[in-house]
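S1.2 Input.
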Amino acid sequence: MSTSSDLGFGIIGSGMIADYHALAINDATGARFAGIAGRNAETVAALAEKHGAPFHTTDIEALVARDDIQVICIATPSGAHLEPALAAIKAGKHLVIEKPLEITVERVDELLAAAKEAGVIVAPIFQARFGHSAQLIKAALDAGRFGRLVLASAYVKWYRAPDYYQGWKGTLALDGGGATMNQAIHGLDLLQWFAGMPVEVFGRTTRRVHEGIESEDTSCATLRYADGALGTIEASTAAYPGWARRIEICGETGSVSLEDDTIARWDFRDEQPEDEAIRAADGDTAMGSGSSDPKAISHQGHLRQIQDLVNHLRDGAPLGIDGPEARKAVSLIRALYESAKTGRPVSPA
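S1.3 Output.
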């Protein structure tokens, strides 16, 4: 049950992902779902009724002006994040923004600059970082267990049925790209969180199956890191039936493979007491997998991020991921797209 001290959350957008935000807000401790705004009055009203929001409107300004709302969740199409985010920032609201923050580095930078000037928090949705196994890998990297990294790779071989690409999905104006920007971005965020940003990307994109869309349904890239390590990216929404997302980090003294949030391989030259238990664990399956169905995820990942922000705002706990950190995935993807366009390697901006 919510209390008067809970943080009020509002949602802008009433598509599929808004439902996950509402579920997460209602399950978070110290949060309260106070209102929702969107273009479609019918879906906005339906979501408000379903999740118990006392206020709904088609007027974004009316939502962000409310004194009982401290945080706005942006759940509009990817290329339409900036404008409602700026309205919320102007009203002094903190932000939770679906991935990607925006579809170009320039629009991301405009958003982050406005938030910094206003002194508001930007919490991007990258729930894969909050998986238990992903946290174990990050801790092992921070502890130096891999030695010098050799290869860092992300494989997101997913499938989407043709009817998925209706409306804004697959458009350049609102999706900003295809399989790489919309689906693989979670894997690419994990990759750069683990291994850092590459200094050079050489990419290729193609449209092999979903011929009616504007963007790519498949991409590949090679990566070069400043210390000499190499990496690869493979992304698709055309690979039936869709496999688990896989991240591989390989170093001179250890290598791991992560499938969704399950440790598939955990091998180190110098064994630690906890290693056998890590290998034997079933992994964190609470968040589900979007490999073949975008609705097959749970709201647990969003809940972990909403709770993370609430803990930060109320108690000063460290924020799991912020806006500048989320910018990196967009920068990496735009470099891949630019390389594919020009046929030359590109350094992420």
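S1.4 Remarks. The longest helix spans residues 323-342.
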